[in-house]
From TrEMBL:
The chain crosses the membrane at residues 107-128, 134-154, 166-184, 209-228, 240-259, 271-290, 297-317, 357-381, 388-407, 413-431, 438-458. It comes from Plastoroseomonas hellenica. The keyword rRNA-binding does not apply. Keywords: Membrane, Transmembrane, Transmembrane helix. This is Glycosyltransferase RgtA/B/C/D-like domain-containing protein.
Length: 598
């Protein structure tokens, strides 16, 4: 089949340069904002501080396959579901900076602060390649603009976000781009292998990459069912699944000791993800000989193969469809997840919610419209591009459904939404004539490019942190004259400042906002909600706590704490036996109370 979609037609080499310059300007504006990294020197969120702690621990000699971070969930440490690829991307340039004399902590912090913007630039260029099977020429580059201005992508890619989500974006674009090429041209087996390997790498980074991998496999399966000759498509699907399995096997062997190779964890690459790849490969290999049957005769075989594979997987792991949330423990489900903004569903009940949903969902309506029009007017049925459109449509459905359940999955929705919407102006130009074409194209150009690109600049540049519990000044005080021996355990009533305190001070922290740390969350709530001081002291002793920190503005964790709770009594001036209040400098005394336990 001709490969004209991959030919470099249309855009000048200056276009990618201009896009990269625009991206540099965009991230500079974000970093130089009043609450940006260049202004404050602070990372953007608790995850970034925790990632920095994890990379520092690796540099200082932590075992490669040890998931325990001792600085959090003290005294036992926090078992993280994160994996090593992003750690290496942060540590490698930091290590080079250390060789030039930069302090290790500063090197890791700066490397982590800029890893996501760099990955955003990689994703930007990769998106044009990924979209080319659908939109040859200049149309593919529209995807870059959409991903540059996507709220979901920018939120996870800004300076100071040492976060694996932008690495997931890169893996998703590589998976979709190679997968669409493999579907359009059944002779391009290397693209199928590349799609599987890229998808496996994405699952290695985080299992939520299955939101891209599963639609790709399903799209190839449906293409096998619809196409007149489905044998070659089934073989392409088998190559994708086998490439996926090879990468997942490598990931499991790399991340886990031999004794844990058979351990199934839904929130971290494990044997259950390898089993999904193996089941998909078996289905495609069995389906290949049936690909020469007329399409309607393949339906029973397809249903039987998919149903048997799905039934077997769900029998082995009933929580498989819960994805990463299947790894959340009881304490996190009760106290953490209901209060995490990115875990909340997208709603449409009020005007504000509708506006928020438009930011989160981005270009989904445009993508849907483009895919519907493309089937009629772009000649996809004749060129075979309908298979690529089918994969994008399924990824769009999966990402939309996941985003409606939790906002965080909007990042997984962004690649198919941007790829789908990129051809809207091209199709409108073909449909309309004369002045109508110019007017409609101008309106949609403003909607697609103007507002999404300008609004993040305006909102970010005016954003000023309203956090009521500033950490840097407190950390300077605690580090200059530690009130307890270094390595002592501190319990703070504010989850979000725990990782930053663990980075900036010599004290380990009890609570942090992670779904595997539910036991620490339950203990935090038990202490501050306690009406019996002896009960609170038992929990504190078990956690080996020496310091207790209260932020006056911290809302209660979970249900409102009773009026006679320990936290309310402490704020009211009551001091239980064995609690000594430590004087704080004036710049933080209005925000915090600090106690040492005798």
């Amino acid at each position: 089949m001709p490969r004209r979609n991959d030919s470099p037609d249309g855009p000048t080499p200056l276009l990618p340069i201009a896009l990269l310059l625009a991206l540099v300007f965009l991230h500079w504006r974000i970093a130089a904002a009043p609450d940006g990294f260049l202004t404050t020197g602070e990372m953007a969120d608790p995850d970034a501080w925790t990632r920095s702690l994890r990379v520092l621990a690796l540099y200082l000699g932590a075992a490669w396959q040890d998931p325990i971070l001792s600085a959090l969930s003290a005294p036992d440490g926090l078992s993280l579901h994160w994996t090593r690829p992003l750690d290496i991307l942060i540590l490698a340039p930091a290590w080079l900076a250390m060789r030039l004399g930069v302090d290790p902590r500063d090197a890791i912090l700066w490397s982590g602060a800029w890893v996501s913007p760099v990955l955003h630039a990689v994703a930007l260029l990769l998106s044009a390649w990924a979209a080319r099977p659908l939109w040859p020429g200049i149309g593919a580059w529209i995807t870059c603009v959409l991903l540059m201005s996507s709220w979901a992508v920018l939120g996870y890619s800004m300076p100071g976000r040492a976060d694996h989500h932008t690495l997931l974006l890169v893996a998703a674009l590589l998976t979709l781009g190679a997968g669409m090429r493999a579907a359009v041209d059944e002779h391009r087996g290397q693209q199928a292998w590349l799609a599987g390997i890229a998808g496996g790498f994405g699952v290695w980074v985080s299992p939520e990459a299955m939101l891209t991998v599963a639609p790709l496999l399903a799209g190839l399966g449906l293409a096998w069912l619809i196409a007149w000759d489905g044998k070659r498509l089934a073989l392409q699907g088998a190559r994708v699944a086998l490439g996926l399995a090879l990468m997942l096997a490598l990931a499991i062997a790399t991340e886990r000791p031999i004794a844990e190779w058979g351990l199934a964890e839904p929130d971290k690459v494990s044997v259950q993800h390898l089993a999904i790849a193996g089941a998909a490969a078996a289905c495609f290999l069995l389906a290949a000989p049936l690909g020469r049957l007329v399409p309607w005769a393949r339906v029973p075989a397809g249903l039987l193969l998919a149903g048997a594979a799905g039934y077997a997987l769900l029998r082995l792991w009933p929580d498989l469809l819960r994805g990463s949330l299947g790894g959340a423990d009881a304490g996190a489900v009760a106290l953490l997840l209901p209060n995490v903004q990115e875990m909340q569903p997208v709603r449409f009940g009020t005007r504000e919610q509708i506006g928020d949903a438009l930011w989160v969902m981005g270009t989904v309506p445009f993508a849907v419209l483009t895919l519907l029009l493309g089937l009629e007017f772009a000649g996809w049925a004749r060129s075979g591009r309908w298979r690529a459109a089918l994969i994008v449509a399924l990824a769009l459905v999966a990402g939309t459904g996941a985003s409606l359940m939790a906002r965080r999955f909007a990042l997984d929705l962004a690649p198919p939404a941007a790829i789908g919407a990129a051809g809207l102006l091209i199709l409108l130009g073909r449909l309309l004539m004369g002045a109508a074409r110019l007017i409609i194209c101008a309106v949609f150009a403003a909607m697609l490019f103007g507002l999404p690109f300008v609004a993040p600049l305006l909102t970010t540049s005016e954003a000023v942190s309203a956090r009521g519990c500033p950490v840097p000044a407190l950390a300077r005080f605690l580090s200059a004259a530690p009130p307890a021996p270094p390595g002592s355990v501190m319990l703070s009533d504010s989850l979000n400042i725990g990782p930053e305190l663990a980075w900036r001070t010599p004290f380990r922290q009890v609570a942090a906002p992670y779904h595997r740390g539910g036991a620490a969350l339950l203990d935090l709530s038990a202490v501050f909600a306690a009406t019996d001081d002896a009960e609170a002291m038992r929990v504190l002793a078990r956690r080996q706590v020496r310091l207790v920190l209260l932020c006056r503005d911290t809302p209660p964790l979970g249900s409102p704490w009773p009026e006679e709770s320990l936290r309310r009594r402490l704020l009211a001036g009551e001091r239980p036996d064995g609690w000594t209040e430590l004087p704080l400098p004036s710049e933080v005394s209005s925000s915090y109370l600090l106690f040492i336990l005798n």
